[in-house]
Write a structure and sequence with these properties.
Radius of gyration: 26 Å
Oligomer: single chain
Largest sheet: 7 strands, antiparallel
Shape: globular
Distance between the termini: 89 Å
Number of strands: 30
Structural class: alpha+beta
Length: about 600
Amino acid sequence: MKTIMSLLLLSFMAVSSYGMQINKSAFSGKNFWYIDQIDRVEIITDLYKQTKAEYALWEVKKKRIGVDGDKIFKEAIEAEQTIADVDDAVSQARSNMEFYDRARKLIANFQDTHFGLSTHIAAPWIVSGFNTKLVEASGKVIIASKYGKVIEKSVIETQNYYINKIELGDELISVDGVKVSDAIDALMPYIDASSPAFARSRAAAMLIERYFLFPTRPYFDIEFRSAKTQETHKVRLPLYYSGDTSIVRKKDISFYLDQKGFLKLKELRFKWDNQQRTFVKDTSLKVDTLPEGLPKGAIELENWTSANGGGSPIVHSALILKDAKAYAYMQVNSFSVSTVYFKGEQLSFIEALRKNIKFFKAQNLDLILDIRNNGGGNGGYPAQLLSMLTEADKTYPNATWASAVTRYMRQLIEYYGVEEIFKDIDGSDWTMQSDAFFEAASEGRMLSRATQNIDITADPQVGGFDGKIVALVSPNCISACDITSILLQGSKRAKLIGTHANGTGAGYRSNDVYNTQFKDRYNVFSTQIPNMLFGYGVEGHQFGNLLGIDSAYELNSENVPVQADINYVETKKDLTNYMSGWIEKAIEVLNQ
């Protein structure tokens, strides 16, 4: 009897709701797993349950931008139930890929830069040899990067002379017969973004290289306009995929791309060595980009990076000279790195900031603070940065924090309630937040009151900074950078120049025991679900007092980005000439 029941169970599992026989005991096609209708429904159901249980912005999104999480998930499940299973390997691979895209779009509905969905095993990238960037002022898209090795190979593959004619700064007009603005609109719903400007910028960068919405043909047909001659040309760009490198990528996507004739990027990761008379490994694609780094003519002071002997610039400082006057310039490109390196020296991120600001103070310089491309990180760093820029006798309001009353947060607060652990975190602030949480839980509210951190005063080691400050912001100023924008504007310590910051208002509070990482039951997708809220401060608020009942919502900055004090829209000249327009505007404002 037991054997008969087991056979019946296996038979039932092998049949979808459409009656198609799916062999669930073996791999599909070429050693990849086909996600059939039953699996898809279960995966989306997992996403639904976990998101509703843990997402701190579940109710905020519904009230603020009309995103009804229950409705969109239920519609997504119903949609999966109407999509029939397929049986050949190429169709199954494509079915998987389209499911990944639908799930990505589903989560992107929440319009949250911090809440995006990825396959647990990374998808391959497809590249065309060119990367693009949106010119904010005009809405046009230009060529921002060229991959030399890819372009050389493409010319050989196609014998198309005009591929070599595409230059940095040329305008992309259309992709596969679709004008650029419409192509961007089609990509935007798949981008996790707290502001439309950020979604548009990211979509523009994905027009001819991407890791989702893979085309069915191994090429893009593009039209471009030469910046030099203003002539337009149509070119077919062969596509390459990265799924066959040493990094493990999704096998189903790689199989599909291989079957469809996409070229392998791996074949370009070598060069001919004349001495050895053989090919040797060379991973560089010979990338050429539009001007990056410091403003043209700036005198570099320090460049603290994320790795010893290399890495990304984290704190990059310089002097800018104009009309016989010097200005301090400092890029802060991340708040996620705790240790930085420069010329063999190692400092904490905070000490690197402090060292530069003390130098600027000693030279009596006004400061251009560039946070346009800061992806965020540690939420405690922005207040420390403002303290270094605070005048000796001033006090400024801090940011606010709040929690959703979820099962996750109940357990996290319970964990931190252990006295020995409690001593290791910011006790006074955490006490306020936990008190606000307990109150909300006892009263049956979904959100706690907001609590405001202790006021910001001058960093004792800097001893007060009296120079004028302007801060350059853009939609690429995300998360902890949003908090920095909130603090700079709320204190009126700096004039913000640009359009606006990203507009995030939720992040992650976790530890080694409890973390915000989520995977569905089959480990297909992974994401981090934001579980705590942050937002605007209240001037004159007394530390230790709880704010109003609805303060978590009212002060939350999600989808309510900091607007610049002085509007400046990035131009093509900024992208091709070392952000010259930004610097001109900054100096103009400092001299007012």
